[in-house]
Design a protein that fits this description.
13% of the residues lie in helices and 29% in strands. It is an alpha+beta fold. The strands form 2 sheets. Strands 1, 2, 3, 4, 5, 6, 7, 8 and 11 form a 9-stranded antiparallel beta sheet that branches. The protein has a two-stranded antiparallel ribbon with strand order 9-10. It is globular.
């Protein structure tokens, strides 16, 4: 997939809700031991800081969440459930916490590499479907926490992709949070096969356009 350039740091210094919309269609690429892998982001979730009960920063700054406090344009990677890593793009101004969780993507570079890592995936739409799977196919782990996504020499980089029309973007509640469960800060590209299906209480939630 052809993209023009890396994001600049100042472009990413946004409120996480605005950053989440911006990231849809962007391409996250990583240098892995097997070669270059690139994923077009199709599903993300915004998390603010001290005013967001679902955020890792809600109770203040800690060694674990320090990257989330900025500056913008860095990768925040954390370990969850004792088995998975999840990756976020840090936004907002330096010192103001906020980030966007990367939930799903479409593989646009290194598909052969990813298929070897995901031999049981049923079609291309499942190659990077889900936050833990996305990080695993990109080879992201604790070592990449704090990586500068705006640096061309970084092993993980964020590139501007084709802009997604506003009427193709949907929003709904975030997934798997114990607080602020109904806050509609999950955003996705309508029609992408890589987007997960949201369910609560066995019933599918009604969603609305993000505009």
């Amino acid at each position: 997939m052809s993209v023009d350039r890396l994001f600049r740091r100042e472009e990413l210094a946004l409120d996480p809700v605005d950053l989440a919309r911006l990231l849809l269609g962007a391409v996250l690429e990583a240098d892995t031991p097997d070669g270059l892998v690139g994923v077009r982001l199709v599903e993300v979730e915004a998390y603010r800081g001290l005013d967001d009960p679902a955020s890792h920063c809600y109770r203040g700054k800690t060694p674990r969440n320090a990257v989330m406090w900025g500056p913008a344009g860095h990768l925040y990677v954390y370990f969850v459930y004792g088995m998975h890593f999840c990756a976020n793009v840090v936004g907002t101004e330096d010192g103001q916490p906020g980030a966007v969780l990367l939930r799903a993507g479409e593989v646009v570079e290194g598909a052969d590499i990813v298929r070897k890592r995901r031999p049981n995936a049923r079609g291309n739409g499942e190659l990077a479907k889900g936050p833990a799977i996305l990080t695993s196919v990109l080879g992201l782990a604790r070592e990449q926490n704090g990586a500068d996504l705006t640096d061309p020499e970084s092993p993980v980089r964020l590139l501007v992709g084709e802009r997604v029309p506003a009427d193709n973007v949907r929003s709904g509640p975030r997934v798997g949070v114990a607080m602020a469960m109904d806050t509609p800060w999950r955003f996705w590209i309508d029609g992408s096969p890589a987007v997960s299906t949201y369910r609560r209480g066995g019933k599918r939630r009604q969603v609305r356009p993000a505009g």
